[in-house]
User: Which sequence fits this backbone?
């Protein structure tokens, strides 16, 4: 869809729109919206930077090569710190590397990149809105049930008259920790999605609170067992 829309607009590089549409998809609508904003902002800052550096990169082949190498390293250094910041550097490589073939029109490159970014992000958001995760709440409820089951199993283990086995304590702690992590992830994904039934926030908060207390008891039991 993004490629067709870009072609219909007469943009010369529709694959940029396809990449923009595909790259903004996240696990829920809220994160997708945030990624789209980061991509648009980063691309437009990158376009301004490209226009400012263009006179330098047009001075010769060495300046062009050094600029591409610099932004390659900068991309690796910044992409994990902030998506928009990484996009600023990626835009430089996307627009500078075609210059190795021949000096291309700067205005055409700037226009194509801007239109493709807006077109791709707009269509990506529309699809993310149209295809909501209707099973997000089901996943959260299943994760809550798994936490409750893990909590109950750990409680039975601790309440035994005899001293629990060390391996059983470690297994119970790992199982409960994993279930809690899955519940938190499922709850966060569900909270950022739309068009679904309400998430049982109170039950989830209670399950997390009780399970954290149980993890503390398991840690104490493990410490006592190790001393023995």
Assistant:
């Amino acid at each position: 869809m993004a490629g067709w829309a870009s072609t219909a607009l007469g943009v010369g590089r529709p694959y940029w729109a396809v990449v923009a549409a595909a790259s903004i998809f996240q696990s829920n609508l809220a994160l997708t919206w945030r990624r789209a904003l980061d991509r648009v902002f980063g691309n437009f800052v990158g376009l301004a930077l490209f226009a400012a550096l263009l006179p330098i990169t047009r001075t010769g082949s060495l300046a062009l090569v050094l600029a591409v190498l610099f932004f390659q390293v900068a991309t690796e250094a910044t992409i994990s710190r902030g998506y928009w910041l990484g996009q600023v550097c990626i835009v430089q490589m996307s627009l500078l590397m075609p210059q190795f073939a021949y000096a291309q029109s700067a205005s055409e490159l700037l226009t194509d990149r801007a239109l493709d970014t807006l077109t791709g992000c707009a269509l990506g958001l529309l699809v993310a809105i149209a295809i909501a995760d209707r099973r997000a709440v089901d996943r959260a409820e299943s994760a809550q049930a798994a936490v409750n089951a893990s909590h109950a199993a750990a409680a039975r283990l601790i309440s035994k008259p005899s001293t629990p086995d060390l391996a059983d304590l470690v297994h119970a702690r790992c199982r409960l920790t994993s279930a809690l992590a899955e519940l938190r992830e499922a709850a966060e994904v569900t909270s950022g999605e739309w068009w679904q039934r309400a998430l049982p926030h109170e039950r989830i908060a209670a399950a997390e609170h009780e399970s954290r207390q149980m993890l503390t008891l398991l840690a104490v039991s493990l410490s006592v067992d190790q001393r023995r």
About this structure: The mean pLDDT is 89. DSSP finds nine helices and no strands in the chain. Residues 148 and 173 are 13 Å apart (CA to CA). The longest helix spans residues 29-57.
